[in-house]
Amino acid sequence: MVRPPVPALFGLLAAAVSSVNGAAECPSSAWIPFRSSCYIFLHGTLNDVAPFDDARDLCKDNASGADIISIKNREENTFIEETFENHWQAPDYILLGMFFDADDNTFKWFDKSEMKFTNWIEEESNEELLNTCASMNTKSGGWRKISCENLPLAGTLCKAAFAYEKTYLPDKTALTTTLVIVFTIVVTVSAALFWFLYKRSISSGALCITHHSTTEIPYSDETILIDEENEYTA
Ligand SMILES: *[C@@H]1O[C@H](CO)[C@@H](O)[C@H](O)[C@H]1NC(C)=O
User: Which residues are near ligand 1 (CB < 6 Å)?
Assistant: First the structure.
């Protein structure tokens, strides 16, 4: 029977993919992992002259590649809200890492990720958004627009990608690496399989020849003779 070591190959592939993703490696144990990122709440008062610059510097100083918080979806928002409840001692409001861009009248995340999810708790109104910043209520997880002149400055929430030493690879690189690994495995398995079939066809060919030359030919001659007799009597 053909039994390529399929489970072993899948194991190898899984290990390769997870090392590309850098599974579960936060900058330090002070950071809390969730999905593909790590989070930390740093205590201390932000400089009120340039609070965002200060916050981003604090995040980056704790772990290179880290930045002030951005929130991509409901699950991440819920994770943050729950972690404030269970783990971080934080004020009621914290600063979200976004700014209002007057060029196209939208809010943008400082870390340049796309803003696909929002969790504003107030009705949208025709309020003046220039000089508007955003905060998160750490008890409810809701977002509120606030004046950039009057920000919550106690502490900063930072986010970093998993195992940034390795995973600061852009997504495309990870995908390419995975494809190369899969391709290599497929080629190796195919080559092994071809080799196996080739060897087997040689050895079974030899068996056929010896088989025919001994028993089968006389036997089949007899059968034909009997068949012919039957045909004539019928
Ligand atoms: C990052 O912050 C944590 C918690 O405040 C602290 O224990 C750790 O020493 C900091 N690490 C660096 C590299 O600044």
Answer: 30, 40, 42, 61-62
Q: What was the pLDDT predicted at 23?
A: 46
**How many separate domains does the chain show?**
2
C-alpha of residue 62 to centroid of ligand 1, in Å: 5
List, for the chain, all residue ranges whose pLDDT scores fall below the cut of 50.
Answer: 1-2, 4, 7, 9, 11-23, 167-168, 210-231, 233-234
Write out the DSSP string of 95-119. Answer: E-SEEEETTTTEEEETT--------
Do residues 180 and 131 both lie within one domain? no
Residues 49 and 140 in one domain: yes
Q: Which domain holds residue 28?
A: 24-164
- Indicate the helix (H) or strand (E) that contains 137: strand 132-137
Task: Give distance in angstroms: CA of 29 to centre of ligand 1.
Answer: 9
Question: Which residue owns the Cα nearest ligand 1 atom 8?
Answer: 62
Q: Looking at residue 228, what is its pLDDT?
A: 47
Q: What is d(CA 187, CA 198) in angstroms, rounded to the nearest whole number?
A: 16
Q: Are residues 42 and 120 in the same domain?
A: yes
Pair 190, 134 in one domain: no
Would you say the pTM of this structure is higher than 0.85? no
**Atom from ligand 1 closest to the CA of residue 61:** 14
- Alpha helix ranges (H) inside 145-170: 164-167
pLDDT of residue 18: 46
- Look at residues 164, 196, 220 and tell me which one is the last residue of a structural domain: 164
Domain endpoint, select from 124, 148, 164:
164
